[in-house]
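This part of the workshop introduces the protein records we will be handling. To make this concrete, we reproduce a full record directly below.
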Amino acid sequence: MARRAFYSFHYKEDNWRASQVRNMGVIDGNRPVSDNDWEKIKRGGDEAIKKWINDQMKGKSVVIVLIGSKTAGRKWIKYEIERG
């Protein structure tokens, strides 16, 4: 059975690394969010971010946390790990 993954990472610092992992083709159907989309989501505030995360996690069977030098302690990374 194929896994459906949710990727958790520090967007500003590690987006390019996450794109490399996603583009390996190992996980099908996982479309990265664009810079413009993420900025729009953030403007909606904490509740909009939570809703987006929750919607993105629906139907996923695994959470992959990509850890960079500034990942630990990030509010939304912690939320994503707890939700996973």
Observations:
- DSSP finds four helices and two strands in the chain.
- Helices lie at 11-22, 35-43, 45-57, 75-83.
- The first strand starts at residue 5 and ends at 8.
- The mean pLDDT is 76.
